[in-house]
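Extended Data, panel c. Modelled sequence:
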Amino acid sequence: MAAEGVVKDVGEIHARLLDHRPVVQGEIKCFIREFERNHREEERLEAVLGHAQQMGQTIPACTMLLEDNLAQVTANLRVATSMCEKISETEEKMAKADPLKNRREGRKQEWDAFMSDQFGRSAEVDREHEILCDKITEQHRLKEELLKEGKVSMP
């Protein structure tokens, strides 16, 4: 029994002092992870390099197209600008030289005032008509009462 305990203790001491497998395995895993991460970064850098090389080929072609067409675009832009200025000047002249517009607006205001006055007069005539109708209705009612009472004779 004592020998078994000693063997067990010696085995544990040997495992702690001389068995480096767990430490080495941890280091290996860390190295592999680092290697894989560096590999992914390398792939990304290669992709960026590919894009940069593609842009290096595209940029000269774009500058050539720009140089070829810039004069034409500038000329078209000048023509468009001058046309816009002419249209703007024409509109300003039309706005200034339109006396009919002012007259139309004046007549429209006069017409609106006239129609407003007519609506007011029409409403007044309608009220007077209603009052007269009520008076006539009242007179007829009174005459009918007098007729029923026999105080007024019919001609």
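The radius of gyration is 54 Å. This feature is highlighted in the accompanying rendering.
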